[in-house]
Amino acid sequence: MTLPPAVSNRLVKPTLKTKFHIDFEWWNRESSEFRVYLMSHLCPDHQAALAEYAGGDLIDNVDADTGEVQQIDGVQYTLRTHCAQQPDFLTAHTTLVDAVFRVFIANGNKPLTPEELAEKINRPGQGTTILRTLSGQRVYKGLRPFMDDTP
């Protein structure tokens, strides 16, 4: 019997080898503020330019590694293709949760382990801190263990 992701995620005891990702279903269940939070990660130029943007535009995005075409929201596309390339997208002052969230937005939500995340956010050696933060009782910004449903 396969458990639904919401149930099976709670049963996982994550380790440093567990991969995490943004669980967009969590956002659908728990919060209606995804667009507001997502827009807070835009660079200042795009925050101003998209201040009145109502959303809903889907853009075809091609995965450079697999060639897979995926439709993503215009704000996510802007974050991934422009804002994530800016030098101040990830800084020493970016909170841990925001930095991890930004990594997943920038990489197309490809699952990563806490150790890989520590390297990506330029905080080597903090894999254990990331693991403790992401595997606690509270779910931060939909950051949850990745459940691979393939047999």
What's the arrangement of secondary structure elements?
Elements: H1 5-11, E1 20-22, H2 24-30, H3 34-39, H4 44-49, E2 58-62, E3 69-73, H5 74-81, H6 96-106, H7 114-120, H8 127-134, E4 143-145
Antiparallel strand pairs: 1-4, 2-3
Helix pairs in contact: 7-8
Element string (H = helix, E = strand): HEHHHEEHHHHE
Largest sheet: 2 strands, antiparallel
What gap, in angstroms, lies between the N and C termini? Answer: 12 Å
Uncertain runs with pLDDT below 50, 5 residues or more?
A: none
* Average pLDDT for all residues: 87
Number of domains: 1
Structural class: alpha+beta
**Rg measurement, Å:** 16 Å
Helix proportion of residues, in percent?
25-40%
Number of strands: 4
Q: In percent terms, what proportion of residues is strand?
A: 5-15%
Please give a quick description of this structure.
Helices cover 40% and strands 11% of the residues. The protein is of the alpha+beta class and 151 residues long. It has one domain.
What does this structure look like?
The model has no long low-confidence stretch (mean pLDDT 87). Helix content is 40%, strand content 11%. It is globular, with a radius of gyration of 16 Å. The chain starts with a helix and ends in a 6-residue tail after the last strand. It contains eight helices and four strands. The strands form two sheets. It has a two-stranded antiparallel sheet. The protein has a two-stranded antiparallel ribbon with strand order 2-3. The chain is of the alpha+beta class. The protein has one domain. Strand 2 and strand 3 form a beta hairpin.
